[in-house]
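Request: How about a record?
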Amino acid sequence: MTLSRRDFVRLTAGTGALAAMGQLGRTAAVAAPSGSYRAMVGIFLYGGNDGWNMVVPTDARHAAYQAARGGVALPRNTLTPLTNSSYALHPAMAALRPIWDEGALSLVLNTGTLFAPLTKATYQSRPDLRPSNLMSHSDEQAHWQGLRARDAASDGFLGRLADRMPGGRLPPLISLAGSTLALIGKTATPLVLPASGLPGRSGYSAKDTAKNLATTMLATSDGGPIMDGVESTLRDTFDQADLANSLLSGASSVTRYFVDANGRALTSDIAAQLLGAAKMIEARGTLGHSRQSFLLSMAGFDYHANQIQGSPTAGAHADQLGDLAQAMAAFHRAVTALGVGANVTTFTMSDFGRTYASNAQNGTDHAWGNNHLVMGGDVAKGGIFGTYPDPVLGGDDDITKEGRFIPGIAQEEYLGAIARWHGVSNADMPYVFPNWSTWSTAGRGPLALFRR
């Protein structure tokens, strides 16, 4: 996914907790259902997560699953069953089973990039209705983040959502996943925090004035309006870096929840990101945020070979799913302890799904539709949304004979449901989701992901 020079400048203005300019004068058009705080936490799984091994059917379809998937198929007796459902999670994701039993985890089946509703027949006969450059990493990442299935995207859905979001002492759009397309809005500036470590402030101390710093940095004796503007900008910037530093490095009540079943601290990168998000949620009152949006990420899901090692339940993919599950479970415990478990929704995204059929290298290749997870105290209890595709290779849902399934749910129907819960007004949905009219008419619309 390529960013233009202008986009890079807009995003790096927020890197290292240095973003809050551009918050003034914004229209706060986000509705406030019941006046309560809301946060949405998106986790992007870069490379194309194999959602067909993340969520597995346990009924009669498992035989077809095992036959089609070959060497990467998970035996039924190894799975983590989800109570009162015909689905299970990968055995490495057992940490999420209690959250399902609590009623705070839902499944979204076979969702992905769509420009218009498609069947296999219309896919074959109407190439003008297909998303552009399907199964390309950069294009599909842009499709998910920009939500323009046939056009180049210059901004992202989280940035556009932030354009309509009330501000605070720091920007309410926060990334611990670096600078990406999803964060670019028309007016909003995100807060981009480093994935590891804290923002550096070399040469700065509280005793220095911003004007002295500006004079030193710019090596000019010219005062007047220009220097006053630089002074003001630097003062705000360093003040905000100080605030972000204090929140992320200071004592926090949520840290103790980020441990494994044996009480050992979680050390994965995704756990560190979710801990950072939990700390910012804990500080929501200090920051003056009634709404917060977070973008987090994990990389390395592009397993064309060696997806499994030794057995179908072991290997790099299993390790990643285990890290993800433990970190998500820890995050859920933390926000629940803060009293906002029902006010925070965590959800997964990824480039695309993998082929249902494995390849000769014990890996899987680029495909299309995929399964995703939604977690939070306000999600529909036992919610399973969408239809699992026909697992027969070359069947009605497969555009090839390797198991590249046409999504049954569009990204707009999935992410749009979360945005509506977050408080985006009906009037603003077409702004946040450019193709909203296609997915809000003719019987289509946002999924009923939530209890109310």
Residues 5-439 form a domain with the Alkaline Phosphatase, subunit A fold (CATH 3.40.720).
